[in-house]
């Protein structure tokens, strides 16, 4: 059933601008984070700080479906936005790297409550054909934020206003929240079961020790590998087992692992995990390589994401229209092209050296941006195909968990190799290998058979 919205055009603009604001938050803060850590003597903690910046999101995303069902999606958006505002205001005034990391972690929890909202809300307001077109629009507006966020943040850093980028996302959110609060009903799902607090605790006991262990390793802390530090991976394994058992016997789990029974969701989850390696490299380690290996300015460093986001803006305008013409036929071909583009972009990064022209960075960024746009447009309708609408929010939260989860693990993991070699280049080699695996994953597992198509169309008849 589609929800009735009086002014759908204004509502769509609000949803799209929320996506833009989220990318301003993520990419703008990433650009400003490295110079700020340098300023407050915390650059040696970069891998841990970057990972903690998405760890809270990783914890919050799986619970979005369950929380939204009980309190309403609209309330969840307001709560998440409020957390982001309070913590980012604190970041503006902090001069302690450990307080900075704590605030980044908490703010990422708020971001996790909000970031899947555009996709899940569109799926409840418009029919599937129209929604697929708007998913492409989301990709475009996300790219606008990811394009303008780093550029404006880099310019502000070079101008001596390095803390303002942490608040650049706010105007977009204010407009979006006002419209959503007025237009979108705060629907709740009736449930006799209590919210699964224990499942969320188990997830936190997996994510936080894992990120700490990898982050301390990437920061060159021997504590991570000897003595008490070795307890951390053991904690991860124990609580992972407990979470699986707990979710299997809980009626409404905070971490809806039951969604993995859907084969298309499983494939999309793992493909998205590997897709995120490209954008993580481009916005993080490529930026650092430009700043500290190529010795360029923060403004020049911020251009690493510009070509990627320009191609995202352009491609997002028509990718959804191409996809909806013959979804079953086109989705596989488009996703293969997307993963090949990501591999080609990372290959450009692999041949960088300190004397390389910026053109090589921009070419790699642009080619990978095409791949990002294709995958952003295709993945959500792919795993939603045949999925009941009441599962959309839970599936979208878990799907985006794959991206934030991989980012939280990938950054500190490759940081270990950066610390061991004293070079950023191993990051690009590892990402390229993962991109190659992703191509194979799509080739062999992304498909919608005639039987699947008949079954799905039969339920709609």
TrEMBL record:
Topology in membrane: Multi-pass membrane protein
Residues in Major facilitator superfamily (MFS) profile domain copies: 7-450
InterPro entries: MFS, MFS_dom, MFS_trans_sf
Membrane-spanning intervals of the chain: 45-64, 76-95, 101-122, 134-154, 166-185, 197-216, 222-244, 265-286, 306-323, 335-352, 398-420, 427-446
Keywords on record: Cell membrane, Membrane, Transmembrane, Transmembrane helix, Transport
SUPFAM superfamilies in alphabetical order: MFS general substrate transporter
Keyword Signal: no
Coarse class of the protein's main subcellular location: membrane
Highest taxon of source: Bacteria
Name recorded for this polypeptide: Major facilitator superfamily (MFS) profile domain-containing protein
Organism: Blautia parvula
Lineage start: Bacteria, Bacillati, Bacillota, Clostridia, Lachnospirales
């Amino acid at each position: 059933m589609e929800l009735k919205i009086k002014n759908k055009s204004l509502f769509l603009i609000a949803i799209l601008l929320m996506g833009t604001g989220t990318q301003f938050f993520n990419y703008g803060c990433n650009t400003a984070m490295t110079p700020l850590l340098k300023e407050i003597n915390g650059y040696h903690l970069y891998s841990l700080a970057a990972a903690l910046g998405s760890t809270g999101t990783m914890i919050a995303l799986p619970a979005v479906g369950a929380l939204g069902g009980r309190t309403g999606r609209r309330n969840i958006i307001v709560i998440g936005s409020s957390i982001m505002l309070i913590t980012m205001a604190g970041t503006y005034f902090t001069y302690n790297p450990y307080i900075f990391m704590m605030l980044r972690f908490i703010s990422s929890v708020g971001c996790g409550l909000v970031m899947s909202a555009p996709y899940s809300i569109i799926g409840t307001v418009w029919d599937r054909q129209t929604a697929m077109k708007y998913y492409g629009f989301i990709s475009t507006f996300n790219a606008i934020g990811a394009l303008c966020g780093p550029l404006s943040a880099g310019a502000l850093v070079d101008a001596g206003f390095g803390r303002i980028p942490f608040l650049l996302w706010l105007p977009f959110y204010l407009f979006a929240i006002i419209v959503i609060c007025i237009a979108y009903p705060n629907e709740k799902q009736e449930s006799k079961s209590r919210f699964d607090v224990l499942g969320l605790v188990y997830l936190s006991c997996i994510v936080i020790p894992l990120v700490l262990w990898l982050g301390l390793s990437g920061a060159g802390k021997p504590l991570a590998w000897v003595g008490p530090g070795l307890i951390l991976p053991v904690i991860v394994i124990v609580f992972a087992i407990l979470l699986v058992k707990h979710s299997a016997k809980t009626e409404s789990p905070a971490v809806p692992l039951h969604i993995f029974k859907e084969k298309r969701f499983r494939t999309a989850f793992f493909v998205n995990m590997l897709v995120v390696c490209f954008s993580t490299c481009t916005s993080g380690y490529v930026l650092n390589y430009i700043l500290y290996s190529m010795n360029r300015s923060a403004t020049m460093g911020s251009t690493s994401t510009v070509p990627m986001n320009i191609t995202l803006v352009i491609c997002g305008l028509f990718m959804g229209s191409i996809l909806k013409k013959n979804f079953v036929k086109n989705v596989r071909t488009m996703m293969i092209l997307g993963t090949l583009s990501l591999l080609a972009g990372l290959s450009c990064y692999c041949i960088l050296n300190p004397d390389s022209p910026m053109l090589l960075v921009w070419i790699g960024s642009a080619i990978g941006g095409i791949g990002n746009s294709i995958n952003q447009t295709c993945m959500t309708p792919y795993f939603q195909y045949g999925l009941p609408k009441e599962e959309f929010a839970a599936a979208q939260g878990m799907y985006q968990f794959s991206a934030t989860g991989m980012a939280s693990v990938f950054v500190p993991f490759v940081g270990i190799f950066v610390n061991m070699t004293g070079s950023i280049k191993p990051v690009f080699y590892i990402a390229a290998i993962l991109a190659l695996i992703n191509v194979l994953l799509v080739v062999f597992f992304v498909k919608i058979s005639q039987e699947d198509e008949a079954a799905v169309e039969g339920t709609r008849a």
